[in-house]
TrEMBL record:
<feature type="domain" description="3-dehydroquinate synthase C-terminal">
    <location>
        <begin position="176"/>
        <end position="319"/>
    </location>
</feature>
<dbReference type="InterPro" id="IPR050071">
    <property type="entry name" value="Dehydroquinate_synthase"/>
</dbReference>
<keyword id="KW-0862">Zinc</keyword>
<feature type="domain" description="3-dehydroquinate synthase N-terminal">
    <location>
        <begin position="62"/>
        <end position="174"/>
    </location>
</feature>
<keyword id="KW-0547">Nucleotide-binding</keyword>
<dbReference type="GO" id="GO:0046872">
    <property type="term" value="F:metal ion binding"/>
</dbReference>
<dbReference type="GO" id="GO:0005737">
    <property type="term" value="C:cytoplasm"/>
</dbReference>
<dbReference type="GO" id="GO:0009423">
    <property type="term" value="P:chorismate biosynthetic process"/>
</dbReference>
<dbReference type="InterPro" id="IPR056179">
    <property type="entry name" value="DHQS_C"/>
</dbReference>
<dbReference type="InterPro" id="IPR030963">
    <property type="entry name" value="DHQ_synth_fam"/>
</dbReference>
<keyword id="KW-0456">Lyase</keyword>
<keyword id="KW-0520">NAD</keyword>
<dbReference type="Pfam" id="PF01761">
    <property type="entry name" value="DHQ_synthase"/>
</dbReference>
<dbReference type="InterPro" id="IPR016037">
    <property type="entry name" value="DHQ_synth_AroB"/>
</dbReference>
<dbReference type="GO" id="GO:0003856">
    <property type="term" value="F:3-dehydroquinate synthase activity"/>
</dbReference>
<protein>
    <recommendedName>
        <fullName>3-dehydroquinate synthase</fullName>
        <ecNumber>4.2.3.4</ecNumber>
    </recommendedName>
</protein>
<dbReference type="Pfam" id="PF24621">
    <property type="entry name" value="DHQS_C"/>
</dbReference>
Amino acid sequence: MKQVIKERGSVYGNENSIDLLTNILETLSPTRIFILTDTNTAKYCLPYLLKRVTLLSNAKTLTFQEGEAHKTIETCSEIWNSLSQNGADRNSLLINLGGGVVTDLGGFVASTFKRGIEFINIPTSLLAMVDASVGGKNGVDLGVLKNQIGVIRNPYCVIIDVDFLNSLPKQQITSGFAEMLKHGLIHSEDYWTRVKRFPIANTSEAKELIWESIEIKNNVVEQDPEERGLRKTLNYGHTLGHAIESYFLKNQNKQALLHGEAIAVGMVLTTFISSELSAFPSTKLKEITEVILAHFPKQEFSKNDIEEIIKLLIYDKKNRNGKVLFVLLKGYGDHITDCEVPNALIHKAFDYYKNFEKNI
């Protein structure tokens, strides 16, 4: 079994990790156990968990509608009320079983109910395994604005079982793959080279790459837990990616994007900007763009779309004194934080993305 041991938030993965939950429950001895799921994980993942961990037979399941649109304070209020009505006290335990929406929201619910009850995360999507599993970020969206309300608090532990990935459609696997590609860009060309060949259709072969991605993020968080410098690099591609995700979510003429789909666009745009402002090699920019577009369908952006996306940048959490600040790269694993980018260059990046086929 793989493990990352920490004072709080230790991560256990791969073989027999789910069986460890029995020992953890016996150690915690909670007064009541609640399992938070969305409608998808209640159907596809909860039966597997209950079959493997008999101590959960009397747990109360709380379920909310799946999707980013339900990652709201209103959903939290419903869950807080359900906890209260079902006798939850300060010694109760909340197990968050699901993707990043479930673990983000569930962690926030647990961290605020009765000023904090214990919680365990069991991520069931690739995105949640390689991203939300580490860092202790819990929260909800404010309207369409991503992760504006929240707290940083690690769960008691995180259980990674890649068998849950068998329940996911390919689109969801690909969404998580975007974060693994990001880890390659900010960590090393060696990891990028290996992860770009990630066997999406055969996740059992990808266990080592998944675990390495978890370790990359954990190493960054351990060095900079308060996000004052190095941890900002985990937001590579997210400044524009989150704005794109929010814009597609609020625009009825657009099909909402999965998180990884929006971040994939953001990484292409940001790598182009890096080539213009920080001398990121143009040959590597071309290869990165080719790899990303091989997995993520190209999105269309009108001039008005781009202007509206740029307006949303003011809500990015890394901003300071009203300035929009980007993470840029000079090379693989060679980053610059707190970079200002002129709007004209953002437009130029969208032009590069739009016309890339013509340059091949």
